[in-house]
Structure formats: C-alpha cells, structure tokens
Write a structure and sequence with these properties.
There is one protein chain. The protein is globular, with a radius of gyration of 18 Å. It has helices at residues 7-13, 16-19, 22-28, 45-52, 64-72, 106-116, 134-146, 162-172, 192-199, 209-227; strands spanning 35-39, 56-61, 77-79, 91-97, 117-128, 175-183, 186-187, 228-229, 233-236, 239-246. Helix 7 (134-146) packs across helix 10. The mean pLDDT is 96. The protein has 249 residues and is an alpha/beta fold. The N and C termini lie far apart (37 Å). Strand 8 and strand 9 form a beta hairpin. The protein has a domain at 7-132 and 158-188 and 236-246: Vaccinia Virus protein VP39 (Rossmann fold). 39% of the residues lie in helices and 23% in strands. The chain contains 10 helices and 10 strands. The structure holds benzoic acid. Residues 98, 101, 128, 132-133, 157, 199, 238 line the site of benzoic acid (BEZ).
C-alpha cells in the first residue's frame, strides 16, 4: 500500500519533521562541496539547509507532489523510489530523515544506498523505529475493526529494531558506527486530526468523504485520553532509529 501525499498540507502542518532534525544534521556533519543524496526528501526543507552549507545536493522522493515542492525551492530533485536507486559510487553521503519507514523493501533500499556511495562514504539516517506511534497504530486498527465497512487495513510502515536494521546494514557490507533507538515524544501542534490527514491518508484511500471524516473523528476520540492534555496539547509517541554507517574504503 503506498500513500498519496498532500505536499501543501505537509509543508504547512508538518514543519516539526524538519525542525526536529538537528541531531541528525549534527551526526551527518556535512561539509561544503560534499556530494549528498537526500533519500525521501519530502518538501526539500532539509535539502535546502544542506545546499546552503555548500553541499552538492541531489534529492529523491517517491511522491511527485513532494518533488515539485523541492524543485520550487531550487533543489535538484527527482521522483524516484528509494527501493530502486540506480547510482554508482557517486555520493560522499546518503542522508535520510523520516522516510525509510515508508519503504517496505529495506534490503533493496540499503543495497541501493551502498552502491550509491563512494568508498568511505556514509549513510546517515533517522526513521521510525520499533514501537513508533504504537498508540496511533492501535487506534487505527481498532477503528478498522469497529467498522468492517471500511475494508481491511494494511499498515504501510516498517519500524525495525536497532538489531534488525544493523543486520541489514552489515549484510549489505556497511560498517555500522552507531545505531540507537530513542523515544522522542513529539508535539503535534496542528492536532491529531491534521496529522491523520497528512500521514494516514493511505488508510482512507478507499473511503468516501463521510467515512473519511468518521475515521478521523473515531481515531482522534480513541487517542484523546492517552495522547492529549490541555497543558501540552497532542503529543505523539514517536520512537526514532538513528544511525551512521560507512561503506569501507
Ligand atoms: C515518523 O516519522 O515516525 C512517522 C510519521 C508519520 C507516519 C508514520 C511515521
């Protein structure tokens, strides 16, 4: 199951995705003139940051509407699946934020990244890891169970443990310098209904407009006791998997 993205809504209400990327950018420690591939670039916000540091950026995303946003920001961007990368020893680094968990063929992704890197190049990424948005996933499943007329629900996400992803990286030939799973409760300023509209569009693709509304309201009602407080608003139970791995010289 793939997801259709509303890139305009994403750019308005999902700014937290790039705003929370400082630790990942610090791990990447990009230098001017490095050639960097941004894998799953979204609307290109982080690619712009890297380009402004003097890096030579190429960005790819499987969503044409996201690629258009990145192109509008002056990024060299292509619509391409991360599972079918076709670069040969071109990049000093492959960088990815909050995208790898949408790619359900992780071995193909890791292999493509390995081939894309120059010897000595690095793969620096953060993605949803084991336990990510567990409460939200339970709510989505529960609402589908309560509404058989919505059909069957298939999760589009892959949230591996550190051990599982490390194994994939090592099998592809990488030397893993660090890989860690971190709980990062994440404030959803736009509210959970907007979050669901942006990030759970896959779940409602076969539904009519009334059912879509029903789905979103039911999931929000299910989640309110655990994720909402008047003091803090909506806080989602994000878990990050962050790593840096090298292709040997
Ligand atoms: C994430 O960044 O962890 C994420 C965001 C939306 C949906 C699923 C995961």
């Amino acid at each position: 199951m793939s997801q259709t993205w509303n890139a305009k809504k994403y750019s308005q209400d999902a700014t937290f995705v790039s705003q929370l990327a400082s630790p990942l950018l610090a791990l990447l420690a990009a230098k001017a003139n490095e050639r960097i591939l941004d894998l799953g670039c979204g609307d290109g916000t982080l690619a712009v940051k890297l380009q402004n540091l003097g890096c030579q950026l190429v960005a790819v995303d499987s969503s044409q509407s996201m690629v258009e946003q990145a192109l509008n920001k002056g990024i060299t961007a292509y619509c391409q699946s991360g599972e079918a990368l076709n670069y040969q020893a071109e990049f000093d680094a492959v960088f990815s934020n909050a995208a790898l968990h949408w790619m359900l063929k992780p071995a193909a992704v890791v292999q493509g990244v390995y081939l894309a890197l120059k010897p000595g190049g690095r793969f620096v990424a953060e993605m949803g890891g084991k336990g990510n948005i567990l409460t939200i996933r339970h709510a989505i499943n529960a609402v589908f169970q309560q509404h058989p007329e919505f059909g069957e629900y298939h999760s589009p996400w892959y949230f591996p443990s550190a051990e599982e992803y490390k194994e994939l990286l090592v099998t592809a030939g990488f030397k893993v310098q660090s890989i860690e799973l971190l709980k990062r409760p994440t404030k959803i300023s736009a509210g959970i209904e907007q979050w669901l509209t942006i990030f759970a569009a896959h779940a409602t693709e076969g539904l009519d407009n009334m059912q879509k509304r029903q789905f979103i309201e039911a999931v929000a009602a299910y989640l309110k006791p655990s994720l909402y407080s008047t003091q803090n608003g909506w806080i989602a139970d994000y878990v990050r998997l962050r790593f840096i791995a090298y292709k040997p010289e």
